[in-house]
Specification:
Layout lengths: L5 H28 L4 H9 L18 H14 L1 H20 L2 H12 L5 E4 L15 E5 L2 E12 L6 E7 L9 E7 L5 E6 L10 E12 L11 H37 L1 E2 L2 E2 L4 H29 L5 H32 L5 H11 L6 H16 L4 H4 L4 H6 L3 H17 L4
Parallel strand pairs: 1-4
Antiparallel strand pairs: 2-3, 3-7, 4-5, 6-7, 8-9
The protein binds acetoacetyl-coenzyme A (CAA).
């Protein structure tokens, strides 16, 4: 693989090995059982994968976002559910890295890095999905702590996780400092798991409702120690985490392409393997091209975060939407190449298609990703206006936003029309 350094390759190869030896053979079992795959989690912990994104000073491997993406890609190539069961721990712990204070980092990150503590991210609610600012779970100040009341929806890893990053309203009257994040431990009185979702895909990882019934947490559990920064922590986290979901999509697309290639070579029709037919060849060629384009964008977006490039959040959104749309397209085409067999559970291919669908939805729908990209483009436009300056009459530019000038212009146009001129 071009442009990868030794460290990148080390994680990629290690993840590929664990994916082939441990994940692929167990993927079907946990898809059918819809149970958390503790034996796979233990293998990932033993391989050191939970420390990839955690700095060395907090007991991690000090890897990059790209290293994390390479691991997720390889795991997802074998099982999309395991891909998210792993990377949701990065999503849950990024808020600590982004906004946690020294005590919080020192206390939690080493345990997460060793795989001793699993973590989940509780942002979405029944009535707050894409509109993440509109969440309702309330945190009321109470002496030296806070009391949390409300519910969260679609908590991935819920029940399995030991720690939950919970976003709550601490200042309902404030517009920009309304939300704060809290670190809530499993077993805290009043904190329970509600409905366990029965899902189309990613069935090995639990997705649940989390219920907070007067859950008391201390000030020390408020992320960063200062209320009001929760939304910024959530957005900063999602920027970091989105290349990971993109890598999940990439792995699913790559894995399904490989299965379709093998099936295309084995399946005989009209006296020949179906991969000798041009229509199948065209499909495979398009799938491979889309996968490679997604790979370049995913790696580039991870690097843009690692090197703190401006507008890295735009790249993360682009990678997430492109790679996960690619995953849906390529896994669907792979099922098509498997034909009737592909629709049945006998082969592993239909699982790729089921696992792929959610990647277009979670961690920001692909519509939200397009919104993030478009908002960045609108901002960037300011620096480009000179490109068309020569083509726009000055008086129109200068008066464009000024109602008085516009009115005068209109009056002028009226006079011109009466005189029969337009210039
Ligand atoms: N980084 C830091 N701060 C940011 C930011 C970023 N990327 N984007 C916005 N902000 C800040 C803004 O500067 C602004 O700050 P001030 O109030 O201080 O000025 C504040 O946040 C509000 O910004 P916007 O007005 O732009 O926010 P918005 O309400 O219009 O929302 C949005 C923008 C992009 C739609 C956002 O709500 C969003 O990303 N929604 C999707 C939520 C999401 O991804 N949910 C997924 C849940 S997790 C999940 O699915 C995980 C799982 O199960 C595996």
């Amino acid at each position: 693989m071009p442009f990868l350094n030794d460290q990148n390759r080390m994680w990629q190869e290690k993840a590929r090995e664990v994916a082939e030896k441990v994940v692929r053979p167990l993927a079907r079992k946990y898809d059918l059982l819809q149970e958390y795959p503790w034996e796979i989690k233990d293998a990932l912990a033993e391989a050191g994968f939970f420390g990839v994104w955690i700095p060395k000073e907090y007991g991690g491997a000090g890897g990059t976002v790209l290293d994390l993406c390479l691991v997720i890609e390889q795991l997802s190539r074998a099982c999309g559910g395991v891909g998210v069961m792993y990377c949701v721990n990065a999503l849950g712990s990024f808020p600590i890295l982004v906004g946690g204070n020294e005590e919080q980092k020192a206390h939690w990150l080493p345990k997460i890095a060793r795989g001793e503590k699993l973590i989940a991210f509780c942002l979405s609610e029944k009535f707050a999905g894409s509109d993440a600012q509109s969440l309702r779970l309330a945190a009321r100040k109470d002496g030296t702590g806070w009391v949390l009341k409300g519910e969260k929806k679609w908590t991935t890893n819920g029940g399995a996780a030991d720690l939950y990053t919970v976003f709550a309203v601490t200042d309902p009257a404030s517009k920009s400092r309304r939300i704060s994040a809290f670190l809530v431990e499993k077993g805290t009185p009043g904190f329970t798991i509600g409905k366990i979702e029965d899902k189309m895909g990613i069935r090995c990882v639990p997705v649940v409702e989390t219920v907070f019934h007067d859950v008391r947490v201390e000030d020390a559990q408020l992320l960063g120690g200062q209320p009001g920064f929760g939304f910024h922590h959530a957005m900063g986290t999602l920027d970091l985490a989105r290349p990971g979901v993109a890598a999940q999509g990439l792995g699913l697309a790559q894995g399904s392409l490989e299965l379709a290639m093998v099936y295309g070579a084995r399946r005989q029709q009209f006296g020949s393997p179906i991969n000798s037919f041009q229509m199948i060849q065209q499909m495979l060629a398009d799938m491979a091209t889309q996968v490679e384009a997604a790979r370049q964008l995913v790696y580039a977006s991870a690097r843009s975060l690692d090197t703190k490039m401006p507008a890295a959040n735009k790249m993360a959104a682009m990678a997430k939407l492109f790679a996960t749309d690619t995953a849906m397209k390529v896994t669907t085409d792979a099922v098509q190449i498997f034909g009737g067999y592909g629709y049945m559970r006998d082969y592993p291919i239909e699982k790729y298609m089921r696992d792929a669908k959610i990647t277009q939805i979670y961690e920001g729908t692909n519509q939200v990703q397009r919104l993030v990209v478009a908002r960045n483009l609108v901002k960037e436009t300011g620096a480009l206006t000179q490109l068309l300056e020569a083509y726009i009459p000055r008086e129109v530019q200068e008066g464009f936003n000024d109602p008085a000038t516009l009115a005068a212009q209109k009056a002028g146009e009226g006079e011109a029309a009466v005189r029969g001129t337009t210039s």
